[in-house]
């Protein structure tokens, strides 16, 4: 990491965010940049991957390396980036529709693989960008344009699903708590493995039920409540609490082998460093083909 101190403005582009006034995306954008500053990164040292949605539009407002991935395909993109350069932190931003709906399959299998990435989901319980349709986390009986008489499907429980799928770091934040969220993103980036943070992010325009006030009345801090994040069964029990009080903080945390660190071929040098060597003619392809015979 560099000596030169950055500020949150260094991680912002010149573009003005297009989010609705009061949208929870603003706080996540701020918390993310505060976390990167506190960790001492420069913009060119960070790789971001964004999904499609209001959340994914953050790609226009964050100054760092970035990929605006296909809808639901942030996680395989992030894994590919880590395989290419495992020296660079990779932070993924997406919505609940993007990550739990369109990308639901990738969610499960990336948790199993456990690459060293930080995955932040803006969970507003609707498809925001496409104007408020039902999403996988919409509450049962919630009404929307796509379910005018109320949602029939059981909502996804992202925390319980992540723990069951082998997630090694499973947490939840609230965009109304910017200092807490900043610290959670710092902890997530520092965690060795896949850090998954589901964030309660009020969509002030299309979700008139799950508002800031709704969450303020319900959230409580797991650490303050004495939760033991190394206990998987206790983590499940906390993840299943969804009525009345809503826990935020780390549900489950346990290190286990990281996907990209399991390949001896890239142990000494990242793939990008190796590809530079080929370009400069320091290694030739015939030699490597022989190595695989
Ligand atoms: C393959 C594909 N399918 C559908 C869409 C249309 N689409 C754009 S954004 C979006 C939903 C975004 O919702 P969410 O991921 O919850 O993000 P939010 O906008 O709420 O942040 C959809 C369905 C698309 N762009 N690409
Ligand atoms: S539609 Fe909802 S999620 Fe999208 S910018 Fe507006 S408030 Fe935010």
Runs in which pLDDT lies below 50 for 5 or more consecutive residues are: none
Order of helices and strands: HEEHEHHEEEHEHEHEHEHH
Mean pLDDT: 95
What fold name goes in the CATH topology slot of the largest domain? Rossmann fold
Going by CATH, the homologous superfamily of the largest domain would be Thiamin diphosphate (ThDP)-binding fold, Pyr/PP domains
Write up this protein:
With 293 residues, the chain is α/β, with parallel strands linked by helices. The chain has 2 domains: 8-258, 3-Layer(aba) Sandwich (Rossmann fold), CATH 3.40.50.970; 263-293, no CATH class. It has 10 helices and 10 strands. The strands form 2 sheets. An 8-stranded mixed beta sheet has the order 2-1-3-4-8-7-10-9, with helices on both faces. The chain has a two-stranded antiparallel ribbon with strand order 5-6. β7, α6 (178-190) and β8 (195-200) form a beta-alpha-beta unit. The longest helix has 14 residues, at 25-38. It is globular and about 65 Å long.
Secondary structure elements and their pairing?
Blueprint: H1 25-38, E1 47-50, E2 65-68, H2 74-84, E3 90-95, H3 96-102, H4 104-113, E4 117-123, E5 126-127, E6 133-134, H5 158-164, E7 169-174, H6 178-190, E8 195-200, H7 212-218, E9 219-221, H8 232-239, E10 246-253, H9 271-279, H10 285-291
Parallel strand pairs: 1-2, 1-3, 3-4, 4-8, 7-8, 9-10
Antiparallel strand pairs: 5-6, 7-10
Helix pairs in contact: 1-6, 3-4, 5-8
Bound molecules: thiamine diphosphate (TPP) and iron/sulfur cluster.
Structure in a nutshell:
The chain is of the alpha/beta class. It is 32% helix and 16% strand. It folds into two domains: 8-258, Rossmann fold (3-Layer(aba) Sandwich); 263-293, no CATH class.
């Amino acid at each position: 990491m560099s000596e030169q101190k950055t500020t949150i403005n260094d991680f912002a582009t010149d573009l003005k965010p297009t989010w609705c006034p009061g949208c929870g995306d603003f706080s996540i954008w701020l918390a993310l940049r505060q976390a990167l500053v506190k960790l001492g990164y420069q913009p060119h040292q960070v790789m971001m991957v964004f999904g499609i949605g209001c959340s994914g539009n953050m790609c226009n407002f964050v100054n760092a390396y970035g990929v605006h991935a296909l809808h639901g395909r942030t996680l395989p993109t992030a894994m590919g980036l880590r395989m290419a350069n495992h020296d660079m932190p990779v932070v993924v931003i997406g919505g609940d529709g993007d990550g739990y709906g369109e990308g639901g399959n990738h969610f499960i299998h990336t948790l199993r693989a456990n690459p060293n990435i930080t995955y932040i989901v803006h969970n507003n319980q609707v498809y925001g960008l496409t104007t408020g349709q039902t999403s996988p986390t919409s509450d049962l009986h919630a009404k929307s344009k796509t379910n005018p008489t109320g949602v029939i499907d059981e909502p996804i429980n992202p925390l319980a699903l992540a723990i069951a799928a082998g997630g090694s770091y499973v947490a939840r934040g609230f965009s109304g708590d910017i200092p807490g969220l900043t610290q959670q993103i710092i902890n997530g980036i520092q965690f060795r493995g896949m850090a998954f943070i589901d964030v309660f992010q009020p969509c002030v325009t299309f979700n008139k039920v799950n508002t800031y006030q709704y969450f303020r009345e319900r959230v409580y801090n797991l650490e303050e409540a004495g939760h033991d994040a190394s206990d998987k069964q206790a983590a499940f029990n906390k993840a299943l609490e969804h009525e009345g009080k809503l826990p935020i903080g780390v549900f489950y945390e346990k290190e286990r082998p990281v996907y990209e660190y399991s390949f001896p071929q890239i142990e000494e040098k990242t793939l990008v460093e190796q590809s530079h060597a080929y370009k400069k003619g320091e290694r030739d392809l015939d030699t490597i083909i022989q190595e695989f015979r």
